Amino acid sequence: MSSSFDQMIVTEEWESTDLSLLETLDHVLNRGLVIAGEITIAVADIDLIFVGLNVLVSSVETAHEVLRKRQTE
Amino acid sequence: MKLYAYCLVEDLDAFDPTTRGISGAAVRSLQIDDLAVLVSDFNADTVAVTKENALDHAAVVRSVLDRTAPLPFRFGTLVTGQQLRSYISARKPALQTRFEHVRGCVEMSVKIIREISTDNETPRDDITSGTSFLEEKRLALLGSEQKAAEATEISTWLHEQVNGLIRDEQATVRSSEKLVLAAAHLVERDKIPQYKERLAAARKNRPELHFLFSGPWPPYSFANIELEFKTQFGVS
Fold first, then answer.
1. Which residue of A1, A33, A49 is in closest CB contact with B74?
2. Which residues of B5-17 are buried (b: 16+ CB within 10 A; e: fewer)?
3. Interatomic CA distance for residues B167 and B27, integer angstroms
4. What CATH number did the domain enclosing B132 receive?
5. Could you report the per-residue pLDDT of B165-201, keeping only the tens digit for each?
6. Residues B136 and B82 grouped into a single domain
7. Do residue B133 and residue B30 come from a single domain?
8. Does the CB of A10 have a partner CB in chain B at under 8 Å?
9. What is the DSSP letter of B175?
């Protein structure tokens, strides 16, 4: 569906695709309405980008570090 | 069978029935009172946290954003129809207050990263006296106070930049981290161009900071009804 509210990711030096995913994860995993006791996620099959969930969603700084390492490899 | 819940909407016509959800599942609109919940039938007991599932969840919530401001559920919300009905029925006034708050708005995200000097944080191995130890502690404390003051200044500065253009703000200040500020702004749709211009100009005035702007998002950060619920029912 086309949208008149296309998402923007503005940044200085990071890859916007990865950051767009990070921002999406930050929103869907950390925020929103919660029905107490009814969040039933399984983290065994994580295939999120690069690293573990907690590290990933907690900090854009982490993404910065990961991307920097990837660029030097 | 359980239901995977994506979001609540006021506008029952906002939903596109061709939308696909988690793992390609069909999405349907479940009407409860005068609200609708976008749901998919779900057979498992848990939802795997995968990139694909997270993006599917976000896509369903986002699919109605052009027409209405939804209240998104957090990823992984699995419920029965009865649980959903009880939840909405028990919290109707709080949910209505939230809908009124976000109506006509989208969420914009600003993250600010700063470089932190670690000069005062590196433990010294040449401390030989109690006086030196105390001096080291004093410097560390001063460093931490300075970081807190800087973080507060950045938060206040950002708020001033968008003042008059936002309906609400949720800001998380982390004075000891490089990611010093994560802010979510609730912005009326017709003010988005002005909001973007204001931030673009503001960013140029702070070359020492790194910025990440993103949006528009559904109002994930403004969906929480706990505050209203506590106010109305005295529940803590």
1. A33
2. bbbbbbeeebbee
3. 31
4. 3.30.70
5. 999 999 999 887 778 899 999 999 999 999 999 999 9
6. no
7. no
8. yes
9. T
| CB contact A45 to B (< 8 Å) | yes
The pTM of this model reads 0.79
| Structural domain boundaries, residue B30 | 2-90
pLDDT in tens, B120-156: 555 555 556 777 777 777 777 777 788 888 999 999 9
Query: B67 and B38 in contact (C-beta within 8 Å)?
Result: no
d(CA A20, CA A10): 10
Residue B51 in domain: yes
* Cβ contact A28–B75 (<8 Å): yes
CA distance A73 to chain B (A): 23
ipTM: 0.81
Residues B144, B210, single domain; the answer is yes
Percent of chain B predicted with pLDDT > 70: 89
Same domain, B125 and B172: yes
Q: Give yes or no: residues B214 and B125 share one domain.
A: yes
Contact list, B217 vs chain A (CB under 8 Å): 7, 23, 27
Question: In sequence order, what are the residues at sequence separation of 6 or more whose Cβ sits closer than 8 angstroms to the Cβ of residue B29?
Answer: B9, B12, B15, B17, B36, B37, B38, B39
Tally the domains of chain B.
2
Q: Is residue B100 part of a domain?
A: no
- Looking at the structure, do residues B85 and B109 belong to the same domain, yes or no? no
User: Is residue B166 within 8 Å of B186, Cβ to Cβ?
Assistant: yes
